[in-house]
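pinging the channel bc i need a second pair of eyes. not urgent but kinda urgent?? the chain im working w is below, pasted from the shared doc
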Amino acid sequence: MGPEAECGHQSHPSIQIVRYHPRYAVACGALVRASFERFVAADISPEGQNHFFSIVARVLGENHAAYTTFCALRNEGPVAIISMRETCHLSLFFCEPGSMGRGLGRMMLSALEQHLISAHPAGCELTVNSSLFAVNIYRRLGFKVCGEPTSNNGILFQSMVKSIQPPERACVNDNV
C-alpha cells in the first residue's frame, strides 16, 4: 500500500492515505490535540505542552514542506497523521482516539516505511521520542528502546529506533 491509496483494511474500510496538505491543518490540529490531551498531557509539564504544540504548528503550518507527512482520511476528514523530519525522525504520529487499536497506526507507519525505502534504498534508522504512554505501541510496531527516559523542554520521552530495510530480494540461481 502506498501513499494516496485506498486501503481495504477490514477494520478501516474506505480509509485513504494521502500526502498532507495545509487544507487539513485545522482538522489535523484538532485530532492531535484530542489524542494528546487524552493520552499524553498528564506526563508533560505546561512548558512541555507549549513546546509540543509549537512543533505541531510548524508541521501543519508554513514549514509543512520541511516534513514528510501523511494523513489517513475517512469521508475526506483526517483520522490519523504521521509526520517525519527529513532526518528520519518521527515528529508526529497520532490517531483519532476512537480509531486506535484497529490497525490504523500500522497502516500509517507502513505508508511512511514505503516512502523511506524509496528514498533510502540501502535502508535507514527511523527514530522517535515516544511519550511514555506510547512506548508499548511503538514496541508492537517494531521499535526498540534506546537508553533511559529523558526530559527536554519540559517533555518526558523515551528515545526509540526502528531499522527500515527494503524487502529481501530473492536470489536467482542461473543453474536451476
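so The longest strand covers residues 155-164. and The two ends are 33 Å apart (CA to CA). — does that match what u expected or am i reading it wrong
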